[in-house]
Amino acid sequence: MNDTVKIFALALASNQSPEQHFKTSFHQIAEWGDVVFSPIYVIPCRDGVGADYWNACCLLKSTLSEQEIMCRLKQMENVSGRVRPSHHISLDIDLIAWGSDLDQMQFNPKKLPLALDVKIPMWDLWQNELFQHAPHSFPKVIFKSICI
């Protein structure tokens, strides 16, 4: 068994029943270790097709491995009814980075360069230069029942 605690930076998005999918996801992720979630932002679809997304990020401290995290994230997407390719996304959860501390994180090369809808919520948790972005006016979701 792996007892080494790692930090995982995750990005979450949904534009189909986002309240339901975020509530379920937040609770499941919280079962894997200590977690802090960013505010949820409403951000338009990257290519202008499809409904606006709820976007959030979290930093999770867990003894799970990167492979275990990836498998669980994909399982959560599948259970939510995720269909690929589509502009109707029930749930998209990506592993953005992982490591022993925030100064020693390895970024997922498949997610670089980082999209604005990742940078905005992640900056609220982790002020790394890769998450810097121009000022914005995207609204935050006020969703008290999502609190853990």
UniProtKB/TrEMBL annotation:
MF-aspect GO terms: 2-amino-4-hydroxy-6-hydroxymethyldihydropteridine diphosphokinase activity; ATP binding; kinase activity
The EC number(s) this enzyme carries: 2.7.6.3
Domain 7,8-dihydro-6-hydroxymethylpterin-pyrophosphokinase residue range list: 10-127
Name of the molecule in the record: 2-amino-4-hydroxy-6-hydroxymethyldihydropteridine diphosphokinase
Key words, A-Z: ATP-binding, Folate biosynthesis, Kinase, Nucleotide-binding, Transferase
Source superkingdom: Bacteria
Pfam families per record: HPPK (PF01288)
GO terms, biological process: folic acid biosynthetic process; tetrahydrofolate biosynthetic process
Class of this enzyme: transferase
Keyword presence, Kinase: yes
